[in-house]
Automatic annotation (TrEMBL):
Species of the source: Amycolatopsis silviterrae
Protein name: 4Fe-4S dicluster domain-containing protein
Taxonomic lineage from the root: Bacteria, Bacillati, Actinomycetota, Actinomycetes, Pseudonocardiales
Cross-referenced PROSITE patterns: 4FE4S_FER_1, 4FE4S_FER_2
Residue stretches making up the 4Fe-4S ferredoxin-type domain: 1-30, 31-61
Keyword terms: 4Fe-4S, Electron transport, Iron, Iron-sulfur, Metal-binding, Repeat, Transport
Top-rank taxon, per record: Bacteria
Signal peptide: none
Length: 117
C-alpha cells in the first residue's frame, strides 16, 4: 500500500496522480500530492515507479502494518534506501541499468564489437 509522499523530495510533477489506476492521490494546497484514499491502493507500484524524484514509498504489504510508523518516516526510509528502491530494482531512473541488460553475460572489453566478439 502507498505509505508516504516525501514533501522534501517531491517536485509536484503530478505523475503519481496521473498514473494511479484507483485515484488514491489528490493535489494538496501546496501542490504536493496527498494520499487521500489510502484503502483504495492496489499496491501496483505505478506511482513509485513513475516518480522521477524518488519521493514515494509503497509498502509491498497489501494491508497496513500494525505499527506503520516506520513506513511513514521519510528519514528512516531514506536512510534504509527504500525511497525509490522499486524504481532502482526495475532499472528506471537516471544512471540506472535496466534489469534486462544487467545479467546478460560478461561485460565486453572496451572497443570490442558485440557481434563478432
Amino acid at each position: 500500500m502507498i505509505e508516504l509522499v516525501s514533501a522534501q523530495r517531491c517536485i509536484a510533477c503530478d505523475k503519481c496522480i496521473a498514473v494511479c489506476p484507483t485515484n488514491v492521490f489528490e493535489r494538496g494546497a501546496d501542490g504536493i500530492p496527498v494520499i487521500s484514499r489510502h484503502d483504495d491502493c492496489q499496491t501496483c507500484f505505478q506511482c513509485e515507479a513513475n516518480c522521477p524524484a524518488d519521493a514515494l514509498f509503497v509498502s509491498p504489504r497489501t494491508t497496513p502494518e500494525p505499527d506503520g510508523a516506520a513506513a511513514k518516516d521519510a528519514d528512516l526510509l531514506a536512510v534504509g534506501g527504500l525511497l525509490g528502491s522499486y524504481r532502482e530494482r526495475i532499472g528506471w531512473g537516471k544512471g540506472r541499468v535496466p534489469a534486462s541488460s544487467r545479467a546478460i553475460g560478461p561485460p565486453l572489453r572496451p572497443g570490442a564489437d558485440p557481434i563478432t566478439s
